[in-house]
Amino acid sequence: MDTETTTTKPEHQKSITVHHSGGSDSVYGIGLIGAWIYFFRRATTKQERIQAFFKGFAWPAFLVLWLFEFLEKK
Predict the structure, then answer these.
(1) Mean pLDDT of 14-19
(2) Is-contact 60 31, C-beta < 8 A?
(3) Are the C-beta atoms of residues 35 and 43 closer than 8 Å to each other?
(4) Beta-carbon contacts of residue 53 (< 8 Å; ≥ 6 apart)
(5) Which of 16, 18, 52, 46 is closest to 32 using CA atoms?
(6) Is 35 within 8 Å of 53 (Cβ atoms)?
(7) What is the pLDDT of residues 17-37, one digit of tens each?
(8) 0.90 cut: is pTM over it?
(9) Domain spans of the chain?
(10) Cβ(36)–Cβ(56) under 8 Å?
């Protein structure tokens, strides 16, 4: 006699997603705050302060660009 085994799955079963974040987020955050302090100290006008805010976000891209240019020369 053949028996059929079936497993039942709840209709409303939720899947669990786990995201693991590396430590680079905190390093970028500390660097961002440091860049803001650096640029805001040198800003004297309102326009320079606005530029300092955006420069703080963009500094990693320029840092990597300058590093690659430096390494290319060697």
Answers:
(1) 70
(2) yes
(3) no
(4) 36, 39
(5) 52
(6) no
(7) 766 556 667 777 888 888 899
(8) no
(9) 25-73
(10) yes
Tokens of 16: 């669990």
What is the residue type of 56? G
- Dist CA 36 CA 41 (whole Å): 8
Task: Using only the alpha carbons of the chain, give its radius of gyration.
Answer: 26
- Other residues' Cβ atoms within 10 Å of the Cβ of residue 1: 2
Nearest Cα residue to 55 out of 31, 71, 23: 31
Instruction: Measure CA of the first residue to CA of the last residue in the chain; give whole Å.
Output: 78
Amino acid identity, residue 23?
G
- Per the listing, tokens 């409303």 go with 12
Neighbours of 56 (CB within 10 A): 19
Residue 34 near residue 63, CB atoms below 8 Å: no
